[in-house]
Design goal:
This protein is mostly helical. It is built from 5 helices and no strands. The chain is elongated and about 50 Å long. The relative contact order is 0.13.
């Protein structure tokens, strides 16, 4: 029955996303504090690099950009085994 198949797919997809989100949030929570704060401000709060630099007291945007890139690299390394969940490959 097509409706049951769609419902089952929805349940499987929701569980998969839920697992992926938990895995991602654990990794983000493990980042060094400054990296974590920049990642969260940028991707969750949707703040610009300029806004983050101002809010966190950076003299230039370069420090924010550098820490953001370092944080992303750490997440990519830590989540490499789960690359299929996050399109990190």
């Amino acid at each position: 029955h097509p409706a049951l198949a769609t419902e089952a797919d929805d349940v499987v997809n929701a569980a998969f996303r839920s697992e992926a989100y938990r895995t991602l949030w654990r990794a983000v929570a493990s980042l060094p504090r400054k990296h974590r704060e920049i990642i969260l401000r940028h991707y969750v709060l949707e703040q610009s690099i300029e806004q983050i630099a101002r809010a966190m007291g950076y003299k230039s945007q370069g420090g924010v950009t550098s820490r953001k890139k370092q944080g992303i690299r750490l997440l990519q390394e830590w989540l490499a085994d789960d690359a299929d969940l996050f399109n990190l490959s």
